[in-house]
Amino acid sequence: MTGVDAVEELAVDALRWMRGAARHTGGGGLGWPVRPSDDDVDPMLYNGTAGVVPVLLEAWRHFGDDTYADTALRAARSLADTVDDHPDDSLYFGLTGIALVLRTVHHELGDSSADAAADRALERVRSRFDGTRWGALFELMGGNAGIGLGALLCGDADAALSALEPYTRMAEPTAAGVTWEWRSGVEPRLHHLAHGTLGIAYALAAVGAATGREDLVELARAGVAEVVSRDEAGPEGFLVPHSDPQHRSDRVERHSFGWCHGPAGDAQVFRLLRDVLGEPSWSDLADRCWHTVTRSGLPQRLRPGFWDNNGRCCGTTGVLALACDRIAEQGDSPDGDSADFARILVADLASHATRDADGARWSNVEHRVTPSDLEPQTGWAMGNAGIARELLRYVRLSRGGDPRYAFTWPDQPAVRGTAAQATEPIRPAGTDVTS
Fold this sequence. Notes:
Blueprint: H1 4-20, E1 23-26, E2 29-31, H2 49-63, H3 66-82, H4 95-109, H5 112-127, H6 144-153, H7 157-170, E3 172-173, E4 178-179, E5 189-190, H8 197-211, H9 214-228, E6 243-244, H10 263-277, H11 280-294, H12 316-330, H13 337-352, E7 353-356, E8 359-362, H14 384-398, H15 419-422
Antiparallel strand pairs: 1-2, 3-4, 5-6, 7-8
Helix pairs in contact: 1-14, 2-3, 2-4, 2-14, 3-4, 3-5, 4-5, 4-6, 6-7, 6-8, 7-8, 8-9, 8-10, 10-11, 12-13, 12-14
């Protein structure tokens, strides 16, 4: 598949399969299970209903088809119904992510009930804070960093600062900077965006810049310095191990390359620091990440366990998101290196899609089990929502269209095309659509 129209058709098929997997939740609501075979719907941003809503908004913007907006409104109804009972408070797994999506539905579609539900969710999050943390996790996806980032984007700077303050007293000095535990009582220190030091640094920099807290920005700088000191691929590349000492060495490879634990995600942190600090060295580090990613061998499945995932979190789609950021920011020509690699990624996604009358979907691979092809998922992290969203953006960029998303993902900086934009503060959701 090379034609842009064919890529758009693949995205349409992916959206059709995803919408077909929705479940009625009562009161006219719609929710999504993680997998079609699951008994219950899941509200979370990571791989449930909240992660589906952004791609519905994306499709509505892209095609001008109000049926996508109507489906997003019904999904918001389902999310609102979960607010009073959902036990988790985090960005990716809990109420903070749900609140952010509900706030966006209000902003984009004018649904005041979604806004009220977002307020209710955030109040529950604030009420369950013990002054230090919300639970065992203490990082971006499931802990304080993500909650602070989500609160900021929902317009609650005070709650964002409350969530981030504990990092100032719990930082662990190292020879190069600082680090933090990612889970209570677990020794290995993780380094990357999803669960590690870079994810915490991302939130510190974003919240610190938006609230005028230079000490938080400087703490972010110290966290990043610790991770940069562990680079094993310089001076042209950038590759840092998953963790030290190695976490779950029997199952986790020492090096990854995707958004969650590799240079595709590390580059997003460096893009943010470029915007916050206005220093060219951060662009250089992002370029080094790209150098490593494009020379790693992905998206080829070089060996069992290497690059067995198509999704946004751990696989090909997360790299495509970075490729499209680079195309948009650098004005890459159709034959430039970012555009060329984006075409390779899209072709790989097309080659791994299963397509039939129900639409298109993707099976990730777990080589240690039989059968190794896993059931397709519906949501952002590993499934159709994340893949369709990036395919639609690729189509727009290929046609010279708008690189902005309908929904700014919390840990993917808005595309900044000018020096003036690079020094603008990060704004809470609802004030502008900036990505």
